[in-house]
Design goal:
Layout: H1 2-6, H2 15-34, H3 39-58
């Protein structure tokens, strides 16, 4: 049964979002716990990262 399920493409949906959530958690909270003096810098870098995505998504299609 599992071989049949793993062969389907629909099983892998959500993998990218899961990886994104895990990496975000690791970067924000892991670094924040190690050294709280770096947290404001990490939050600023994360905001720049998200702003980049939002800028690209807001561009009109040609």
């Amino acid at each position: 049964m599992w071989k049949r399920l793993l062969g389907r493409k629909g099983v892998r949906r959500g993998q990218a979002m899961s990886e994104y959530i895990i990496m975000t958690f690791a970067l924000l909270f892991g670094v924040g716990l190690i050294g709280s003096k770096f947290l404001p810098t990490m939050l600023k870098a994360y905001q720049i990262y998200i702003d980049g995505f939002m800028m690209i998504l807001s561009l009109p299609f040609p």
